[in-house]
Design goal:
single chain; 234 residues; alpha+beta; 7 helices
C-alpha cells in the first residue's frame, strides 16, 4: 500500500514538473512580452509578393514607445504614407501627402480612404503581433534559436483580412506558416507566410504574401512625431 502511494506521488510530481516546463509557444509569448515591456524599439517590415501581384507594398519603418506613440512610414509603389497611433487614436498623412488627417476624416472617402483608415486603426506593434501569431499557430517547434509552425485557418484568415473576426471580406483556402527568431530569450525577427483567395467587391483575388519583421534599436529608439499629427489624435 505504501509502495503504491509512493509511486502515485512520484508520478504526480513528474507530471506536474513536466506541465510547468515552458513549451515553444511559451518561449515566444514570453519573448514578445519582454519586447513589449521595453521602453522603446524600432523595426523594419518587408513584404514579398509574386511578380504579377497588383498590390506591391514597399518596406515599412516603425518606431514605438511603451505607453506612448507608434509611428510608421510606409510606401506602396510611388505612394508614401505615415501613420501615428496612440492608444485607440490614429492619424495618417493625407492622400496628396500634404498634412495629416484623423482616421475618422480619412473614412469620409468611401474608396481608398476607408482602406487607409482601416490600416491606421489596425496597426499592431511587433510585440503585440508576435504574441497573436504564436497564439494562432497549431503547434510551434523549436530548432536552435528558431521556432516555426503552421497557422490555424482562422489565424491565416485574420492576416489575409488585415483584421480579426469575420466582419472582413470573405476568404477561402486560407493557410499559412510562421517562424520566430529568438536570441537569449529576446525576439529579434519573425516571418509569416499566408495564401488564400480574398473577395473584394465581388472579385476573387489570389493572395500569396510573405512578411518579414526585423527588430532593432531596442531601448535606443527616439520618437519625435510631427505636432500636426499629434493634434489629429485628440
Amino acid at each position: 500500500m505504501k509502495k503504491n502511494i509512493a509511486i502515485a506521488a512520484a508520478t504526480l510530481l513528474a507530471w506536474s514538473l513536466h506541465a510547468a516546463d515552458p513549451g515553444p509557444k511559451d518561449d515566444v509569448t514570453a519573448a514578445a512580452k519582454k519586447l513589449g515591456d521595453k521602453p522603446n524599439y524600432s523595426w523594419l517590415q518587408t513584404v514579398e509578393v509574386p511578380p504579377d501581384a497588383q498590390f506591391r507594398p514597399g518596406p515599412t519603418d516603425g518606431k514605438t514607445e511603451k505607453d506612448g506613440f507608434t509611428h510608421l512610414k510606409m510606401s506602396f509603389g510611388d505612394n508614401k504614407m505615415e501613420i501615428l497611433v496612440k492608444g485607440d487614436k490614429a492619424a495618417l498623412t493625407a492622400p496628396d501627402g500634404n498634412g495629416w488627417q484623423s482616421a475618422a476624416e480619412a473614412e469620409k472617402d468611401e474608396n481608398f480612404g476607408r482602406f487607409r483608415a482601416m490600416m491606421a486603426r489596425n496597426v499592431k506593434t511587433p510585440a503585440a503581433q508576435a504574441a497573436e501569431l504564436a497564439n494562432d499557430t497549431k503547434e510551434l517547434k523549436k530548432d536552435g534559436d528558431t521556432y516555426s509552425g503552421d497557422l490555424t485557418e482562422d489565424g491565416a484568415k485574420t492576416l489575409l483580412r488585415f483584421r480579426r473576426g469575420g466582419d472582413g471580406p470573405p476568404v477561402a483556402n486560407a493557410k499559412g506558416s510562421v517562424k520566430f527568431w529568438l536570441q537569449d530569450g529576446a525576439l529579434t525577427k519573425y516571418q509569416f507566410k499566408v495564401k488564400g483567395t480574398v473577395t473584394f467587391g465581388g472579385n476573387d483575388v489570389d493572395v500569396d504574401r510573405t512578411t518579414t519583421v526585423e527588430i532593432k534599436d531596442v531601448g535606443a529608439t527616439k520618437l519625435d512625431p510631427p505636432a500636426e499629427a499629434k493634434q489629429k489624435l485628440s
